[in-house]
């Protein structure tokens, strides 16, 4: 299904929703408006606040990337109470078509248009990105999103995953992690339990409790700021990087990501220097009997401020090139 222009573009996560309009085929997205997801009861209200602005271009269709599992009928955000009914959204705004995709579909597409030589777009934390072979995108933020971009002849297949919800736990005899305390507090541990913004807070609070230190952190920015001077917060960030490296390396093995591993989301861009250090790299590469292969895998952090919006535009600019799961509605 071809989406008629102008197209409303949206990147909707558990914390923020971002909106733009692509006015014409091959064009550039217009100015991006970012609003807190919690500021609206649902997507229709947030979209209405955007399209009813005096200077807004009225869209004919919508391409919505949402942080949730795309299912027939109603799609729900994983970490916020919003519900998405493509037909209801289309009818509310008189649209001709609506497409829903997981938010990591455009992030995977974005790695095809980001400039690997521009440090404002990609920060190297390992070997240089060459773009050969499958590319894996992983993003700790409100949750833990993941997708893989797989070459298939002249086309590119984007496979979204629920990798963030697989079980997660210790794999070294003594890694100085409070696993028992975390399991007692959280029950089943998943990768997202720790490798996310809320996960970073869980981690620092568990470390503080086991050391008898004051537990004074309630948000990821507080932990990251505290890591400048507080030894517990600093250790939590380094443990976070180590666990992220371990998980990213495991996923690189699963998907044979010889084209590289790309870290997105709200946390990785703020800890690039830590991710260039030993905790991340050693855990990423320590995959016997494939250590030599892991040493060669490209690694980068996506620094581009709004990669998903550019990824949505890239998908529309070259529709025949990409294959990806989506839910479509047409009037």
Gist of the model:
The protein has helices at 43-51, 86-93, 104-110, 179-186, 191-194, 197-210, 220-226, 231-255, 272-275, 278-285, 291-295, 307-317; strands spanning 7-12, 16-22, 33-36, 61-66, 75-76, 83-84, 97-102, 122-124, 135-140, 144-152, 155-160, 260-263, 299-302, 322-323, 327-330. The protein is α/β, with parallel strands linked by helices and 331 residues long.
Characteristic terms for this protein:
331 residues, alpha/beta, Nucleotidyltransferase, domain 5, Hexokinase, domain 1, 2 domains, seven-stranded mixed sheet, six-stranded mixed sheet, 12 helices, globular
* Strand order in space, largest sheet: 8-13-12-9-10-11-14
Order of helices and strands: EEEHEEEHEHEEEEHHHHHEHHHEHEE
Domains counted in the coordinates: how many? 2
Question: Which percent range describes the beta-strand content?
Answer: 15-25%
H/I helix tally: 12
Instruction: Characterize the quaternary organization of these chains.
Output: single chain
Reading off the top of the CATH hierarchy, the class of the largest domain is best stated as Alpha Beta
